Amino acid sequence: MLDIRDLDVAYGQSQVIRGLSLKAEHNETVAVMGRNGMGKTTLFKSLIGILPVRGGAISVDSVDVTRMPSHQRVENGIAYVPQGRMIFPALSVRENIETGLETAREKKIPDEIYSLFPVLFEMRNRKGGNLSGGQQQQLAIARALVSEPSVLLLDEPTEGIQPSIIKDIARVLNEIRKLREITIIVSEQVLHFALEVADRIAVIERGEIVYEGPRGDVDTAKISQYLAV
Fold this sequence. Notes:
Blueprint: E1 2-11, E2 14-24, E3 29-33, H1 40-48, E4 55-60, E5 63-64, H2 70-75, E6 78-81, H3 93-98, H4 111-116, H5 118-122, H6 133-145, E7 151-155, H7 163-180, E8 183-188, H8 191-197, E9 200-205, E10 208-214, H9 220-227
Parallel strand pairs: 3-8, 3-9, 6-7, 7-8
Antiparallel strand pairs: 1-2, 1-4, 4-5, 9-10
């Protein structure tokens, strides 16, 4: 469903992603793990089109999206939940979710969204800026989901979230995949969260994939070494 081949991405003269290749199948969750500054966010920004790529290719369901602007990538099935959530604090919860409907066939928030996130239904008329960090993360995921993606990118979804809410987010992500049968790529530093949601774990180090394996076979000690500061 998502095929990244020999990707090179740079900020000016500083190359951050180097010849990175990664595949994610239909209805598979892949966790991309690594310390801060190793290239996770740069990778995600290049996948959604915020950063241009210098080389390589990105395809979604066999469609090459490498040179497409961000809005066309959304139309071709990619949705992005950025690091820090980036919701609109002055808009209501309902209005925040509706901003994701631009490319959707139905211009109405599906009931399924509020079933997945009941707290958002309760707070649908409250301003997004008045929600807790965990509630804002759920709001950002809901906003991405209404665009009906085939690939959902989540950048550091547990950052700044309390442990009880992290469990809720893991549960919701697993439920989303059952309901929608979509591909989920999540960048993460919390290993126990990654092991709860991912079928496969890849570790990025200095812009390259240095370790990859299915969840059942992962060497947690080795991954922990890569994540250690």
